[in-house]
Amino acid sequence: MSNKAFLDKICIVTGAASGIGLELARQLAASGASVVLGDVDAAGVAEAAAGILRAGGKAKAVAADVTDAAAVRGLVEGTAAEFGRIDYLFNNAGVAIIGEIRDLSLAQWRRVIEVNLFGEIHCIHYAYPIMIGQGFGHIVNIASGSGIAPGPLNTPYVASKFAIVGLSHALAAEARAFGVAVSVICPGYVDSPMMREMKAVNAEAKDVNAKIDFKRLSAERAAQIILARLPRKRVTIAFPFYVHAFAFLHRFAPGLFLRFSARQVDRFRRIRKVAG
Known about the structure:
Blueprint: E1 10-14, H1 19-30, E2 34-39, H2 42-54, E3 58-63, H3 69-83, E4 88-91, E5 97-98, H4 106-134, E6 137-142, H5 155-175, E7 180-187, E8 190-191, H6 193-196, E9 199-200, H7 205-210, E10 217-218, H8 219-229, E11 236-239, H9 241-252, H10 254-269
Parallel strand pairs: 1-2, 1-4, 2-3, 4-6, 5-9, 6-7, 7-11, 8-10
Helix pairs in contact: 1-8, 3-4, 4-5, 9-10
């Protein structure tokens, strides 16, 4: 699906080797944008860019780990040097781990926070000054419905995504005077490799997936929604409808939201491999 708003734009997409990131890159390129795809998976991101090129789009692959500030600097400043500007930065790279807080190691916490939160901070740190200097740009931070409605059993992910929502709103207020827009994306369940191949502690990922009651959007559809709504420059973009419903309950009926979350925990404990 082509979107004229992205014609001739220069876009960076992190986590672009698969999932929403890959679909964003494909659809941006189909809309006439030049897309720089970044991902820690060097082979995967190279193939993703090659597929866009074969389809007639403009794409370049950069192997970059968003937890490595120097690598992110190379990705961002290299793009600005090559193309003369950055119109859009899509902070999409992310990881998750499922399990109860009592079962998680500090290393597991640190990995999720480093990728999801500091990965976005690194990208913003280097891209935002460039956008200030050019007087325009749009920073798009991919968070999650879990960033506005905090469910249990994925707590490092929830913590990182809540932080991203807060960061985005604070940055939006600061960036407005410089002509830089900021949006934070809060999707519900998306059928992506991260969901299908999620790591679980003391449980089988397939059993966790089987207990998700909500229909998952395809990564293609999620990217379509994001790109359709971005030109309005709203700070928060949340979808589908149940994300808004749960965010409302969390804010205005916290007791009801807590009871729903407790039921999720009870269901998880039936498949948890360690008794208790």
